[in-house]
């Protein structure tokens, strides 16, 4: 039921301010479908609904150790073959594996079942740590609430940062977590208010993104040594301070490119890069296109 809630919240209606999607749940045999919370779902659509879908997400279920029915596997393959994006998170990844859509690809699933997926399907390169892995028209995500990260990534990829950030704000979620970020964090018990200080420093960094923000300054504000700050930061966020800042700067740059007429030089200044050349280098390396190409793509994308 959590997975149903995730996809419904992301791709369901968000009011007139945001574009809507033609969203539907489907199953092999329409009718009541049992859910893990004890309340059955009434699913109106059968597999024929997949015939026109641009995006198909296979949801996790308790019977994931047994391959889905042949009709389900055929429907997934047919959707992929005609050009649809096919995705799954948590143990829904097992359905894509059974359909052969992950052969020769990298994929992820809930960290607890990554070994099982690798054992059953040795032709798949399973990464047990990634939040999500984008292989083009096949995208997989980690378990439980990481489904939100997968769905927001798909929104960001297809419709740009502004829409993904707007949906994330509507759902009170982080706007972006990098796919390579660790899915399982130890989350040690806070000591001496350090976690609270860390949160305050991260909020301060977001407000001062136009500044250089060296790790030494962040550590000073957190009242920690640079080494202790870096260790605490990684334990709390699953990534390094440098990677966190880079993703934050690029995400903000994406939104400014989509929603303003600011020059690339001014955007580079506002997100803390020394020049447009540095922003362009980071953009091409991390996003695959230069900033101006990104702007043309997402300012001309229809709702």
Structural notes for this entry:
With about 300 residues, the protein is an alpha/beta fold. Helix content is about 45%, strand content about 10%. The protein is built from 13 helices and eight strands. It has helices at about 1-10, 70-80, 95-100, 115-120, 145-160, 160-170, 195-205, 215-220, 225-235, 240-260, 265-270, 275-285, 290-300, and strands spanning about 30-35, 40-45, 55-60, 85-90, 105, 125, 130-135, 140. The strands form three sheets. A four-stranded mixed sheet has the order 3-4-8-7. It has a two-stranded antiparallel ribbon with strand order 1-2. Strand 1 (about 30-35) and strand 2 (about 40-45) form a beta hairpin. The chain is globular and about 55 Å long. The chain starts with a helix and ends with a helix. Residues about 185-195 have low confidence and may be disordered.
């Amino acid at each position: 039921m959590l997975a149903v809630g995730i996809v419904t919240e992301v791709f369901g209606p968000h009011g007139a301010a945001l574009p809507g999607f033609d969203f539907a749940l489907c199953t092999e045999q329409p009718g009541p479908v049992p859910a893990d919370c004890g309340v059955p779902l009434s699913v109106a659509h059968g597999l024929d609904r997949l015939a026109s879908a641009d995006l198909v997400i296979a949801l996790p279920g308790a019977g994931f150790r047994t391959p889905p029915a042949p009709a389900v596997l055929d429907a997934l393959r047919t959707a992929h073959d005609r050009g649809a994006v096919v995705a799954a998170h948590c143990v829904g990844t097992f359905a894509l594996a059974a359909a052969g859509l992950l052969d020769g690809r990298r994929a992820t699933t809930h960290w607890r079942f990554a070994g099982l997926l690798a054992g059953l399907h040795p032709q798949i390169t399973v990464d047990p740590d990634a939040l999500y892995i984008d292989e083009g028209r096949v995208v997989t995500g980690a378990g439980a609430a990481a489904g939100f990260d997968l769905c927001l990534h798909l929104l960001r990829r297809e419709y740009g940062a502004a829409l993904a950030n707007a949906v994330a704000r509507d759902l009170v979620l982080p706007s972006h977590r990098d796919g390579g970020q660790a899915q399982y964090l130890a989350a040690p018990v806070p000591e001496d208010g350090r976690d609270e200080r860390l949160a305050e420093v991260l909020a301060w960094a977001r407000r001062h993104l136009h500044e250089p923000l060296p790790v030494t300054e962040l550590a000073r504000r957190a009242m920690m040594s640079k080494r202790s700050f870096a260790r605490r930061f990684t334990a709390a966020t699953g990534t390094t301070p440098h990677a966190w800042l880079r993703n934050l700067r690029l995400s903000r740059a994406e939104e400014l490119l989509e929603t303003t007429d600011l020059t690339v030089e001014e955007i580079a200044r506002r997100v803390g890069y020394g020049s447009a050349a540095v922003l362009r280098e980071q953009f091409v390396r991390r996003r695959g296109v230069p900033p101006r190409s990104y702007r043309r793509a997402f300012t001309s994308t229809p709702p």
